Amino acid sequence: MANTWQGEFPHRNTSASAYKRTSSVESFPPNGFGLQDMIGNVWEWTTDWFAQKHEADAPKSCCIPENPRGGREADSYDPCQPQIQIPRKVIKGGSHLCAPSYCRRYRPAARHAQPVDTSTSHVGFRCIARKRSAS
To answer: Residue 95: how many CB atoms within 10 A of its CB?
Structure first.
């Protein structure tokens, strides 16, 4: 369950929920892992620099990289616009503006490039707290 666009994008949102734009945190029940709000609502800004794909550090492409935290800042520039040197961060999860007829990227693995100098009403961030290990 997630807050995504329902109806004809971008003309009419027919969402049965009360959310025509962003929804409050914990508006939907947790998933099987106890996590909430992993997709939809707002794209989540990450600390990772965008790269077209992760650098391979394993002989098989199916293996998870040792450090999947994105590329280098210098590699995050848009290759389609080499004259514009604006670094891009990874955003994940889709937003309330994602619709089947428009983007279909509302899933935890969805990642997209977002220039660091650009803001929108459907980009946010997630705060996490890691448990301290007993030492």
So the answer is: 27
Do residues 33 and 133 lie in contact, with contact meaning Cβ atoms separated by under 8 Å?
no
Q: Are 21 and 96 in contact (CB under 8 A)?
A: yes
Euclidean distance between CA atoms 126 and 20, whole angstroms? 21
Could you give the C-alpha distances from 102 to 13, 15, 80, 114, in angstroms and in order?
Answer: 13, 16, 22, 18
Residue 36 has pLDDT above 60, yes or no: yes
pTM: 0.73
Please report which helix (H) or strand (E) contains residue 80, including its range. Answer: none
Rounded distance between C-alpha atoms, residue 123 and residue 94, angstroms: 9
Yes or no: say if 49 and 87 are a contact pair by the CB < 8 Å rule.
Answer: yes
Question: Mean pLDDT of all residues in the chain?
Answer: 80
pLDDT in tens, 72-128: 899 899 999 999 999 999 888 888 888 877 776 777 777 889 999 988 888 887 776
* C-alpha pair distances (Å), 78 with each of 16, 84, 85: 38, 8, 8
